[in-house]
Design brief:
It contains five helices and two strands. It is mainly α and 220 residues long. 9% of the residues are buried.
């Protein structure tokens, strides 16, 4: 009987000790598994949890400031000088595409021009026809001679040689242009006046000389 009582008392005391230990453990500040334990990093409220301070999840997260994902206005990658609006695009300032383009100011393409004489010849044939009349005109000077007086049948012109003006002419003793050669004949054999450089008469004589030489080359 004494053994039974002793065993029962021992069981009661053991149960009481276990209950006391469990109660004490729930308030033990050093127990990392206690719910209110301030030392438990996994039971703290998220605002105070250092684990929640994810540098990649913060609003001011420097990782989120991707220079290529920010607004285009502040994105240096988006400031493509060739994709900007044309007024601010330096590539659009083409000096040859501007309204005041200096390349377009071609002095030889101006709409208004000053003619060298009036009226002008309308064709080479018109100029050569006038030259043909002058070629045989003995009234060009006071000697009674015409161009044909010395150059009939293509004589004395060396037309068989490929001599383009200017070239050296032995009779003149100088290198002369075709216009200068015509005037040499006007003031020497013909004893007339020199033809003005921009006159229709000078152009006509030069045009007929060319036609005269072409005729010779065709018939030789």
């Amino acid at each position: 009987m004494n053994k039974m009582m002793t065993l029962l008392i021992a069981l009661v005391m053991s149960a009481g000790m276990m209950s006391s230990a469990a109660y004490a453990g729930s308030h033990n500040p050093c127990n990392p598994c206690a719910m209110k334990n301030p030392c438990n990093p996994c039971s703290m409220e998220k605002p105070a949890n250092p684990c929640a301070k994810n540098p990649c999840g913060m609003k001011a997260n420097p990782c989120a400031m991707n220079p290529c994902s920010v607004k285009k206005q502040a994105n240096p990658c988006g400031m493509n000088p060739c994709s900007m609006k044309k007024p601010a695009n330096p590539c659009a300032k083409n000096p040859c595409g501007m309204k005041a383009n200096p390349c377009a100011m071609n002095p030889c393409a101006a709409s208004k021009s000053t003619p060298i004489r009036k009226p002008a010849f309308k064709s080479f044939g018109e100029a050569a026809a006038l030259g043909k009349k002058m070629w045989s005109d003995e009234n060009l000077g006071t000697s009674g001679m015409a161009c044909l007086s010395c150059h009939a049948d293509h004589e004395l012109l060396n037309l068989d040689k490929n001599q383009n003006y200017p070239h050296y002419v032995k009779m003149v003793g100088d290198v002369v242009t075709l216009d200068q050669m015509i005037n040499y004949c006007m003031i020497n054999p013909i004893k007339g006046k020199q033809l003005e450089q921009n006159s229709k008469e000078m152009t006509a004589m030069a045009a007929y000389f060319r036609a005269y030489r072409m005729e010779y080359l065709r018939n030789r």
